[in-house]
């Protein structure tokens, strides 16, 4: 069994299939024997296996927890021996095999945990690296961009400009303003601006944010439902950053509902956390898109609409506030973003984030 499990790239399914094949010839009546491994209700049976035939079973424990069993059966009756038609030696053997199966599963799961953790770390590391690079590039670009914008504005003031030149200069201005906006977001993403931490009411952030976005909502035929928990405790946070979080989420929601729909913003308290939920009835996301939304510059929108920095910025702000973000989405059905932030001074949140 150690040899089977040691084969590179072998799946648990294959290990169990080969194990059952290995068991049968080791029993006294292999011509009528069959075997199966059951793990978490999933059955891996050798060909011909029939439930209810007389069998010998041994439990599979993974880290002491029963998760299934290994079983050898005789498909036809055989004379009674030590344990039904089975031998004491066969009992020892099947116990040893079940123990091995438990160990193999344990090792597999530890390996999966390790890989998962590693990919999470790599992701965080990549975000930090990109943030660092982006901040550097943004700083460098800021100055030439300022010149482009400034001189375009100056040039427009020249008397007797032909109309077409005037229009072109206006386009240069608009484009550099757009570029400046991207740089501002990049710098925010890299969190080059120091946060100003204070006690903040998320309800106030929502009310002010929606006020600011109201016109845009009604213009696109979006109905806004706001359900704020009036007993919501305060959080220790940078209000401007939370405002940015709300705006980014609401803008995404509105962009997902070009034909109108419902935007639902909700706040609730849940033990030591305040939850802010932003939900839309828009186009939703495929699993593929959902997987990449936190990757900086990942966007499915065209240049005018998106930079692919909205959700990475939200993610950065939320995690720097020791909070968590979860996104549930289904293509064609809408999206729900759930943000949880620690309640200021709550005993469950010792070691609060400091400025
Ligand atoms: P941007 O909005 O600039 O594209 P974001 O980081 O805000 O960048 O979002 C990344 C991508 O995630 C979007 O391009 C879109 O495909 C998807 N997305 C984000 N929010 C929503 C939403 N509410 N509904 C559907 N898709 C969304
Ligand atoms: Mg966005």
Chain-wise SSE layout:
Blueprint: H1 2-5, H2 12-23, E1 33-39, E2 42-45, E3 54-62, E4 65-74, H3 88-156, H4 163-189, E5 197-200, H5 202-219, E6 222-228, E7 235-238, H6 239-255, E8 261-270, E9 273-280, H7 287-292, H8 310-320, E10 324-330, E11 334-342
Parallel strand pairs: 6-8
Antiparallel strand pairs: 1-2, 1-4, 3-4, 5-7, 8-9, 9-11, 10-11
The protein binds adenosine-5'-diphosphate and magnesium ion.
Bin the strand percentage. 15-25%
Shape: elongated
Q: Uncertain regions: pLDDT < 50 for 5+ in a row? A: none
The total tally of domains equals 2
Query: What is the name of the CATH class of the largest domain?
Result: Alpha Beta
- Helix/strand structural class: alpha+beta
Biggest sheet features: 5 strands, mixed
Which kinds of small molecule does this entry bind, naming each only once? adenosine-5'-diphosphate, magnesium ion
What is the string of SSEs from the N terminus onward?
A: HHEEEEHHEHEEHEEHHEE
> In total, how many beta strands?
11
- Cα separation of the termini: 56 Å
Per CATH, which architecture of the largest domain? 2-Layer Sandwich
Descriptive notes:
The protein has 355 residues and is α+β, with helices and mostly antiparallel strands. It folds into 2 domains: 1-193, Beta-Lactamase; 198-349, Heat Shock Protein 90. The chain is 46% helix and 22% strand. It has helices spanning 2-5, 12-23, 88-156, 163-189, 202-219, 239-255, 287-292, 310-320; strands at residues 33-39, 42-45, 54-62, 65-74, 197-200, 222-228, 235-238, 261-270, 273-280, 324-330, 334-342. It has a 5-stranded mixed beta sheet with strand order 6-8-9-11-10, covered by helices on one side. The protein has a 4-stranded antiparallel beta sheet with strand order 2-1-4-3, with helices on one face. Magnesium ion is lined by residues 248, 251-252, 306, 310.
């Amino acid at each position: 069994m150690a040899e089977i499990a040691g084969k590179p790239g072998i799946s648990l399914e294959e290990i169990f299939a080969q194990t059952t094949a290995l068991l049968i010839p080791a029993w006294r009546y292999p011509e009528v024997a069959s075997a199966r491994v059951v793990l978490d209700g999933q059955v891996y049976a050798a060909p011909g296996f029939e439930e209810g035939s007389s069998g010998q079973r041994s439990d599979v424990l993974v880290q002491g927890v029963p998760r299934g069993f290994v079983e050898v059966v005789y498909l036809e009756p055989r004379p009674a021996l030590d344990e039904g038609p089975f031998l004491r030696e066969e009992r020892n053997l099947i116990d040893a095999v079940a123990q091995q199966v438990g160990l193999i599963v344990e090792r597999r799961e530890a390996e999966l945990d390790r890989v998962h953790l590693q990919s999470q770390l790599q992701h965080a590391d990549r975000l930090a690296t990109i943030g660092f690079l982006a901040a550097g590039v943004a700083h460098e670009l800021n100055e030439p961009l300022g010149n482009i914008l400034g001189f375009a504005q100056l040039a427009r003031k020249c008397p007797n400009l032909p109309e077409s030149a005037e229009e072109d200069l206006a386009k240069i201005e608009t484009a550099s303003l757009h570029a400046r906006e991207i740089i501002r977001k990049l710098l925010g993403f890299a969190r080059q601006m120091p946060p100003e931490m204070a006690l903040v009411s998320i309800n106030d952030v929502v009310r002010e944010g929606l006020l600011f976005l109201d016109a845009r909502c009604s213009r696109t035929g979006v109905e806004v439902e706001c359900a704020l928990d009036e007993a919501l405790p305060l959080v220790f946070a940078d209000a401007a950053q939370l405002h940015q979080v709300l705006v980014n989420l609401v803008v995404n929601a509105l962009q997902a509902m070009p034909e109108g729909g419902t935007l639902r913003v909700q706040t609730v308290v849940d033990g030591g956390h305040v939850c802010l939920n932003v939900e839309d009835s828009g186009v939703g996301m495929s699993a593929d898109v959902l997987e990449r939304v936190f990757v900086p510059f990942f966007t499915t929108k065209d240049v005018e609409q998106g930079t692919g920095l909205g959700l990475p910025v939200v993610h950065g702000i939320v995690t720097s506030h020791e909070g968590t973000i979860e996104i549930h989405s289904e293509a064609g059905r809408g999206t729900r973003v759930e943000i949880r932030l620690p309640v200021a001074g709550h005993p469950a949140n010792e070691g609060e984030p400091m400025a």
